[in-house]
Specification:
mainly alpha; 2 strands; two-stranded antiparallel sheet
């Protein structure tokens, strides 16, 4: 083997290693920022983080759906409305958590339908697919008692994604949907499901939720989250792109990281509110108002 062949082989081998290092580093930074936002007594930090996610996500979505300038403007306005919708519904009256969460699920589904309708003139409605689940996170933070039930959604998803990544890379052989997402395997998918169920079941006890209900929550998060991941991959395949963007080194775009959350947050929040409504009795809407 010539020296040039050896050098090219080393370069090829080191590329995945560099990508993994960036992926891990970005994940650490992202999880740290999210943890700070969730642990903060004021929702302002989380609001700033979600607002960044909304802006970057709308930019990526606009490229995938070929929005015009007018479409971007309309989507931005609708996105802000969608993100504040559950928060606003709760602030306007003495609603239980079910009402704003159910409304957000409807908005999310409407946005997903707009994403799927390639010939829909008003495809900027797709902004709701991104915005409404972010609004659910903001609302949960504002209502939640300590510890925040946001962890019941975030940690199982993170655990499932991590398990799927490493199991899929090490032993994954059977592809789920090769034409849509070539790297996803059934082995990784099963690992995702198992990790989500285990982690959600363990966390449930901290919130007075039976372990069985926690396991069911984890299963729902995994199934809906992986479905959302495949849905976002399908959107990208329509434009023949690998990643929705490049804002997150090693991960791609904002949509590449939020896809699981977008499809599962509403249903998970609704289930948590139904099983343990006491978690949503502490309201902190005054945190957005000047003292």
């Amino acid at each position: 083997m010539s020296s040039s062949d050896k050098e090219s082989g080393i370069a090829a081998a080191s590329t995945p290693d560099r990508q993994m290092k960036w992926r891990v580093l970005t994940a650490i930074v992202g999880i740290s920022l999210t943890a700070i936002a969730v642990l903060s007594p004021t929702p302002l930090i989380l609001f700033a983080l979600l607002l960044f996610g909304l802006g970057a996500g709308l930019r990526e979505l606009g490229r995938l759906l070929d929005w015009s300038t007018g479409g971007y403007i309309a989507a931005s306005i609708l996105g802000l409305i969608g993100m504040f919708a559950p928060f606003g519904i709760a602030a306007l009256g003495d609603f239980t958590a079910d009402v704003p969460f159910a409304a957000s699920i409807i908005l999310t589904l409407a946005g997903a339908a707009a994403v799927s309708s390639k010939k829909l003139t008003l495809n900027w409605i797709a902004a709701l697919w991104l915005a409404a689940p972010l609004g659910i996170l903001l609302t949960m933070h504002s209502w939640a008692a300590h510890p925040s039930p946001l962890w019941l959604i975030l940690v199982p998803i993170w655990s499932g994604d991590t398990a799927a990544l490493f199991v899929g890379k090490s032993i994954g052989q059977h592809k789920i949907a090769p034409t849509i997402s070539p790297k996803k395997t059934w082995e990784g998918s099963i690992a995702h499901l198992a990790a989500s169920i285990l982690v959600a079941g363990l966390l449930a006890g901290y919130y007075g939720i039976p372990a069985l209900a926690g396991g069911l929550l984890g299963a729902m998060l995994s199934v809906l989250g992986q479905s959302g991941d495949l849905f976002e991959s399908w959107i990208k395949r329509q434009k023949d792109v690998k990643d929705s963007g490049t804002v997150l080194p090693g991960h791609g775009g904002i949509l590449d990281r939020l896809d699981s959350l977008l499809s599962s947050a509403g249903a998970a929040a609704l289930m948590i509110a139904a099983v343990q409504p006491v978690l949503f009795h502490v309201k902190q809407f005054s945190a957005f108002l000047p003292s």
